[in-house]
């Protein structure tokens, strides 16, 4: 029997996350977007509330809520508050997830615990997932960042781009090839610390959306990585990355749903208040049907995300389902936010109103952690006649 009823724990986390998003995130989101600055005060409060590390095991200092479905429920609320702030928080889980999947007990205790502890001045410690390169985005086999083994350690050299939290993270999960001739079979994962010599944060990107998040380049110049910081065996990096995406693509789907829901709710309220020709514009079928489609598509996207999360929680394969959820929800977010701008008309195009921000934020959902086209490639490869 399939149940759509949330557990008491899931309802509690949803309500807590929504309250935090409403009271703490939304009031600062417009200014953080306008100034393109990380709202550290909000992140400190989120860390104190347990909203950054609640999904990490208790033995490492986390909240012990390891259900992917529950995290999707929480992510929807956080991204409802602000996708940029949600992306910063999500970057911590994105870096920790590979360690939890493939790390040794020592690696988990050292680095996941570190992410659960506050840093200097009470600021939360952040993580970053460094996979993408200028010439290797959708095709990891083109990766040129390399790691050469040398007397019990690896010498890491290379350059990563479009990395969330690069430059402000404490822990980096870096993918590099130990043998370019092996393609993806040469990719290996490493845990790298921010203060090691040769770790050089680069330019912060100026983005169309999710401006509150910090996206930057980072380079590695003869960085000495202890062999103990290799994650898994040599050549297992690509497999680790894909297993990570089975989890995190569900979270991106949930984030996209949160953005779409924010825009839908605002447009719905506006349509009931805005009067033209002597009556609310909601009374016109053209507007009412647009809102009806928004509601249907948001619900459908949420069910796809919950299905993917539930499959993972049950220990079942979910790569196809996670890609379906991510691709569909991202497309829904783009469509719903665009339609919300349309419903508001000229006001929707003005930055005084929030819908244009949600529209800008929505676009990245079709791009990061695998583009909409890559998701369809993943899905098509699993289709059987």
Protein described:
The protein contains eleven helices and ten strands. With 385 residues, it is an alpha+beta fold. The protein has three domains: 115 residues, Acyl-CoA dehydrogenase/oxidase, N-terminal domain (Butyryl-Coa Dehydrogenase, subunit A, domain 1), CATH 1.10.540; 110 residues, Butyryl-CoA Dehydrogenase, subunit A, domain 2; 144 residues, Butyryl-CoA Dehydrogenase, subunit A, domain 3. A four-stranded mixed sheet has the order 1-4-5-8. Helix 7 runs parallel beside helix 9. The protein is globular and about 80 Å long. The two termini are 27 Å apart. The model has no long low-confidence stretch (mean pLDDT 96).
**Main sheet specs:** 4 strands, mixed
Number of helices: 11
Which CATH architecture of the largest domain would you pick? Up-down Bundle
Summarize the helix and strand pattern as letters.
HHHHHHEEEEEEEEHEEHHHH
Number of domains: 3
Q: What key attributes describe this structure?
A:
Butyryl-CoA Dehydrogenase, subunit A, domain 2, Butyryl-Coa Dehydrogenase, subunit A, domain 1, 11 helices, single chain, 4-stranded antiparallel sheet, 4-stranded mixed sheet, alpha+beta
Task: Summarize, please.
With 385 residues, the protein is an alpha+beta fold. It has helices at 8-25, 29-35, 40-48, 68-81, 83-102, 105-116, 237-273, 285-313, 319-344, 355-365, 372-381, and strands at residues 127-130, 146-150, 153-164, 171-177, 187-193, 199-204, 215-226, 230-231, 275-276, 279-280.
Secondary structure elements and their pairing?
Blueprint: H1 8-25, H2 29-35, H3 40-48, H4 68-81, H5 83-102, H6 105-116, E1 127-130, E2 146-150, E3 153-164, E4 171-177, E5 187-193, E6 199-204, E7 215-226, E8 230-231, H7 237-273, E9 275-276, E10 279-280, H8 285-313, H9 319-344, H10 355-365, H11 372-381
Parallel strand pairs: 1-4
Antiparallel strand pairs: 2-3, 3-7, 4-5, 5-8, 6-7, 9-10
Helix pairs in contact: 1-4, 4-5, 4-7, 4-8, 5-6, 5-7, 7-8, 7-9, 7-10, 8-9, 9-10, 9-11
